[in-house]
Amino acid sequence: MSEAYIVEAVRTAGGKRKGALAGWHPADMGAQVLNALVERSGIDPAAIEDVVLGCVTQAGEQGFAFARNAVLASKLPQTVPAVTVDRQCGSSQQCLQFAAQAVMSGTQDVVIAAGAESMTRVPMFSNISYHAADGVGVGPFSQSILDRFGVKGFSQFEGAEMIARKYGFDREALDRFALQSHQRAHAATQAGWFAKEIVPLAIEGGWHARDEGIRADATLESIGSVKLLSEGGAISAANASQICDGASGVLVVSAAALKAHNLTPVARIVNMTVTAGDPVIMLEEPINATRKALTKAGMSIGDIDLYEVNEAFAPVPLAWAKALGADPDRLNVNGGAIALGHPLGATGTKLMTTLIHALRARGLRYGLQTVCEGGGIANVTIVEAL
Asked: Which Gene3D superfamilies match (predicted)?
């Protein structure tokens, strides 16, 4: 089977809720990423055969063929098709895997995988209606689903609490991890680690090129002062991912396209895995998915130089590392979503962008990315930096 290569990987800097990127239409944010991928790679935009773009809350400004609208807002020709993907928080990671599969199968040679989400302009869950106007609708979970699992509903917040209890992490441990996320993200920003991966966006008074959610002055005390989300629990807004506006994307090509368009790869796809498990605890599935991916790749966790595990909630990467015996010094080395934000459908290719740039900057070889997803699903992607 043919290889799939990543030629460029970019992202916008994260914007806080009602923050610097609130004035940006999400289709325009996505368009800027598409433009940057083409401009930085030097490829003829007409050579792009498809755009696969992730978005979770497909309503309002993110509704009605959102990926196609991002293309129409970009400098790509109108002949470039596009499709929107929703695999919850792993949407754009799945876009990357779909793009790589298209290339590896020989179906296509040049595909953009991307994601965009404005959580300010299209709030989370605004695409869900629990009661139709005539009183018939009951929302996305039918009674048969709820009966099967013996629940009144599915909650990621409750799933996070379940993981914290199962793996023995109290609030202090979660808060310490959250503090580390801010410290690492601040250090990476100060050192210029993110400069090459960020696409600046014009805002009033200048350019947005710095992740807005990083709290350089965070302390264990300030994080610990934030109210818990449930009485007797361990999860607070301070040790969970930040609501975020942003976009990201990667350009995926075949070996033939590398030669035809004189492109230089920055990474090679080594393994793509997706698994599903318990939809109640839900956020634990990256552990199982990672085990399966490593087995399929013939690798061990020790072979991986850096890991990006989405910080949806602090217990997710902590439980992942504990269960797999992963080195915490290789985990989210430039901080994660607790500090940098989690722009839902854009997070997958955002994490991949940061992972590839971090590997190459450090002269390292293998990276692994995984994201927990609603419904108990998880994607894992292993890459080799080139």
From this structure: 3.40.47.10
| Residues noted as catalytic | 89, 342, 372
- Which residue type, as a one-letter code, is found at position 293? A
Contact (CB, 8 A) for 67 and 113: no
pLDDT in tens, 27-61: 999 999 999 999 999 999 999 999 999 999 999 99
pLDDT digits (tens, 9 = 90+) for 296-330: 999 999 999 999 999 999 999 999 999 999 999 99
* Short-list 84, 26, 64, CA closest to 247: 26
Backbone dihedral region for residue 168 (phi beyond 0: left; psi -120 to 50: alpha; all else: beta): left
How far is residue 371's CA from residue 358's CA, in Å, rounded to a whole number?
18
At 243, which amino acid appears? I
Virtual torsion, Cα 336, 342, 344, 349, nearest 10 deg: -40
**What torsion, rounded to 10 degrees, do the Cα atoms 174, 169, 241, 216 define?**
10
Q: The whole model's pTM is what?
A: 0.97
